[in-house]
Structures are given as C-alpha cells and as structure tokens.
Amino acid sequence: MTKTFRVTLYNSNHKIIMSERGERHARTVRPGEKFTIDLQSNPSTGYRWHLLYFDKSILKLITPEFAPKPTNQIGTAGIQQFNFEATKEGTTNIRLGYKRSWETETMKSNEFFVNVI
Q1: 20 to 30 A from 54, CA-CA: which of 1, 86, 96, 106?
Q2: 68-98 burial string, b = 16+ CB within 10 Å, else e?
C-alpha cells in the first residue's frame, strides 16, 4: 500500500512542503518553529488518524484538525492535520495510526522523526 505524507514546515518568512511515499520521514526544526503533518483521511468510514506517540517535553500539539475536500458530496475524504510547535531541543518521533476509535489494531501507520536544534 502506498502512503502519502505531506509535511508543511513554517518558519519566519516561508513554508516548506515535503511529500514522500512509504518512507520514514525526518525533519530538523528550531525551538519555536511550527509544523503541520497533513494526512489523507476519510472519517465518514469510521477511520481517522490517531496520535500514538510523541515526546511532549520536546513538541507541543497545537491543534488536530480535519479539512474536507471542497465538494457537496457526503462522505468525502479530506486532509487530517496535526499542528505542532517545537518547544525545546531534542529528538523525538511522532507515531500515527489510522484506525477506528473502537479498534485496537491500526489499519496503517506512519512515523515521523523530528530533530529540534
């Protein structure tokens, strides 16, 4: 199965978008920088992305959001966003699992590595 992972990093004057498929993802940020992990999702099926792990002493989750695709159709997929801010230097991974809230097993998962320097 092909996984699409788009990461948007914001700094003072511009944003950087990274798109990769089925690979481990690594980024370096500075304390105070914010970044967003965007993942394809369709919550109308019961599935959505869940944060399984990240080091809360290094990163702060600002907001999780869902942005549906612009259409009038019911049950349309969209982008699930996880907005983070780096709070102090260190290294952590962010593990995400795509599953239904009542299930323990994930249908698929992604892992993202963050170095804060």
Answers
A1: 1
A2: eeeeeeeeeebebbbbbebeeeeebebebbb
Q: Which domain holds residue 34?
A: 4-116
Answer yes or no: pTM beyond 0.90. no
Q: How far is residue 50 from each of residues 15, 28, 32, 54, measured CA to CA in Å?
A: 25, 23, 24, 11
Tens-place pLDDT, residues 47-64:
889 999 999 999 999 988
In this predicted model, what pLDDT tens digit does every residue of 16-40 receive, in sequence order?
444 444 445 677 888 988 888 888 8
Length of the chain: 117
CATH of residue 10's domain is 2.60.40.2020
Q: Which residues have C-beta within 8 Å of that of residue 62, sequence separation ≥ 6?
A: 34, 83, 84, 85
